[in-house]
């Protein structure tokens, strides 16, 4: 348990602290060590022909074709010079004074809008969150028995909370009689360390966006006629074999968070611990980029996209609003591949088993298949199916607030394609440019993070399914008849 100063705890879905996450690429004290590690990896990639280090064999692109670094035109850079190039680029990201000490008025200029910290440290800006547990009317802390047991989920309370510090919240938000949000000073103890009871505190919190997406995406698959509830979520979290406090700042042990947990130290201030490889940095150095011009490559390798807001749908541009089809050369000599001779309905049924990535790989096998697969009507139908019922379903808005944002962007995609929007949901419009839109989503940092979070919620869905079929894995609860009256006043079945 941290005992000095304050610390960050993180949402158990997105694994990001309420302030939004890091604001610096690297801690100044770690600069030399990080630069040395990156320089060694870049040297191995560019000049020693080692390709991807074995440590990164679990990259999402594994097993698929990728563009390898061009080593033919690379001349060896001395080790010390290579290290200086990396050090200079990292140092160029510093804002001139440590934000916690110097309190600058603005975040670093290289930090894109929506990525990482939502404001300078001294402004104490945090996202709204949702707290679930037992708070009562006094200490805000759950009633834990001397033997370490705590209440089951029957009487949990759900609160909309603000004013975060060290895993706890010091204000609740409720809707007034005229619809306005009213803030009350009321403590909600959600730190895994509690305040007075320092072991395995059961109250927990999620950022409000993750809470809403959790219920929206969970409801898309009916596990039974019974609706999901915060009572169940509470018991799912606390009946696992491993406890949250056995892991990183409140994450669920056994859930794959995509490497973001490495950024969780005493504070979640730096992107560098999330680094998995140095391939983009190597490409940037090979292309002659130096200093601040290398920062975008550093951000890619540091996986900064994991901290990007998940509601920034890509805008259409001239480069992405169209998708080029392929016309084969006229030739009577080359025989058609067997798959290209199948009836169209059979061919379509076969391709339904492929992901978009593998469909495009199939299109590289011959000109005839390339022409069939990149045909506008075929590809639009395939990608539309993938969006509404398959692997790209995560790009659709999940909450009412997201629906407003996403629909406005989707209307602009239709407009760029020369399609009149006649009041239909733009995502179901028959002429919506799905291939170009999904191509832009795949490259979007926001949509990458959205996909990561959807994957985490799919893991929660599996935990929930097992809970409903088999019950608690471990019984850590005491029965509701032992619960003090002050904790029975409010119950919740999901929603705030």
TrEMBL record:
| The protein, known as | F-box domain-containing protein
Q: List residues of the F-box domain.
A: 336-382
Q: Which SUPFAM superfamilies match?
A: F-box domain
- Superkingdom field: Eukaryota
Q: Which organism is it from?
A: Steccherinum ochraceum
């Amino acid at each position: 348990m941290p005992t000095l100063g304050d610390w960050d705890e993180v949402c158990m879905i997105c694994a990001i602290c309420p302030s939004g996450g890091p604001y610096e690429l690297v801690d100044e004290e770690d600069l030399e060590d990080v630069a040395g590690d990156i320089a060694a990896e870049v040297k191995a990639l560019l000049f020693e022909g080692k390709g991807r280090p074995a440590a990164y064999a679990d990259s999402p692109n594994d097993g698929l074709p990728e563009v390898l670094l061009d080593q033919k035109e690379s001349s060896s850079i001395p080790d010390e010079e290579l290290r200086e190039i990396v050090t200079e680029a990292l140092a160029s990201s510093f804002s001139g004074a440590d934000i916690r000490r110097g309190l600058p008025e603005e975040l670093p200029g290289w930090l894109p809008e929506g990525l990482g910290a939502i404001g300078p440290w001294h402004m104490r800006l945090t996202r709204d969150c949702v707290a679930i547990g037992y708070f009562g009317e006094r200490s805000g802390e759950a009633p834990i028995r001397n033997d370490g047991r705590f209440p089951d989920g029957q009487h949990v309370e759900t609160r909309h909370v603000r004013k975060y510090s060290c895993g706890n919240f010091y204000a609740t938000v409720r809707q007034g009689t005229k619809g306005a949000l009213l803030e009350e000073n009321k403590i909600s103890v959600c730190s895994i360390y509690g305040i007075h009871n320092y072991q395995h505190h059961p109250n927990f919190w999620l950022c409000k966006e993750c809470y809403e997406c959790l219920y929206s995406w969970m409801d898309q698959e009916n596990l039974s006629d019974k609706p999901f509830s915060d009572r169940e979520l509470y018991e799912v979290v606390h009946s696992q074999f491993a406890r949250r406090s056995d892991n990183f700042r409140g994450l669920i042990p056994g859930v794959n968070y995509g490497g973001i947990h490495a950024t969780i130290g005493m504070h979640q201030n730096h992107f560098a611990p999330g680094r998995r490889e140095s391939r983009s940095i190597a490409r940037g150095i090979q292309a002659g980029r130096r200093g601040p011009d290398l920062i975008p490559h550093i951000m890619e390798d540091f996986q900064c996209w994991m901290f990007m807001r998940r509601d920034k749908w890509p805008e259409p541009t001239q480069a992405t609003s169209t998708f080029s089809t392929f016309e084969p050369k006229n030739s009577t000599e080359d025989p058609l591949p067997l798959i290209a001779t199948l009836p169209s309905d059979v061919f379509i049924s076969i391709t339904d088993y492929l992901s978009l990535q593998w469909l495009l790989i199939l299109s590289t096998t011959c000109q005839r298949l390339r022409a069939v697969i990149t045909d506008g009507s075929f590809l639009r139908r395939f990608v539309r199916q993938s969006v509404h019922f398959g692997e790209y379903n995560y790009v659709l808005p999940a909450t009412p607030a997201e629906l407003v944002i996403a629909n406005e962007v989707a209307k602009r995609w239709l407009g760029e394609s020369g399609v009149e929007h006649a009041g239909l949901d733009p995502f179901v419009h028959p002429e919506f440019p799905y291939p170009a839109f999904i191509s832009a989503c795949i490259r979007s940092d926001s949509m990458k993070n959205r996909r990561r979070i959807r994957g985490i919620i799919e893991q929660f869905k599996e935990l929930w399914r097992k809970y409903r079929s088999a019950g608690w894995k471990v019984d850590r609860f005491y029965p509701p008849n032992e619960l003090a009256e002050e904790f029975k006043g409010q119950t919740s079945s999901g929603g705030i």
